[in-house]
Design goal:
The protein has 162 residues and is mostly helical. Helix content is 70%, strand content 0%. It has a single domain, classed as Orthogonal Bundle (all-alpha NTP pyrophosphatase fold), CATH 1.10.4010. Helix 2 runs antiparallel to helix 4.
């Protein structure tokens, strides 16, 4: 997966949105963090990993992947907002924690990033989120392919006045 290419692609979408919605002069960092947390929550909801009271299983893998890449869009956007694009994924750290704990880790790191705005915290968040993707069964190739497909959808939505 070429992370730098994904940052470039995301920057193009972000620039378009900022321009078309007259937001170029606005700092949307807080909104971007909240949007990421909402996407992470929607992803958790589709996995149902925390729903100990329910017997219903997780959503189909394709639905979970789509929710996951929605989070990737905002994770990249946050990195762009902070000018933290020097991020690489050499390998995923195999996590021995439950999905629920991994979701909580992502959320805790997002809150820490809100406070610190430090590169190390962003890198940790980035790697933790991509490790979560691996725990969900997604290969880097699947994530990249799904991200590119969703990016096209997002541009189409902008064309349609979303």
């Amino acid at each position: 997966m070429n992370i730098q290419e994904l940052f470039t692609i995301q920057q193009k979408l972000n620039d378009r949105i900022m321009s078309e919605h007259q937001l170029v002069e606005h700092n949307l960092f807080q909104e971007q963090l909240l949007a990421f947390l909402v996407e992470v929550s929607e992803l958790a909801n589709e996995t149902r990993c925390f729903k100990y009271w329910s017997r219903k299983g997780a959503s189909e893998k394709a639905i979970i992947l789509e929710e996951y890449v929605d989070g990737v869009h905002f994770l990249l956007t946050i990195g762009l907002a902070l000018k933290f694009t020097d991020v690489e994924i050499d390998s995923f750290e195999q996590m021995e924690r439950s999905l629920t704990v991994q979701f909580l880790d992502v959320m805790a790191l997002t809150h820490r990033l809100q406070e610190t705005r430090e590169l190390d915290t962003y890198k940790q968040l980035f790697l933790t989120y991509f490790s979560l993707g691996e725990a969900l069964g997604f290969s880097p190739e699947e994530v990249e392919e799904a991200y590119l497909a969703k990016n096209k959808v997002n541009h189409k939505r902008q064309d349609e006045g979303y």
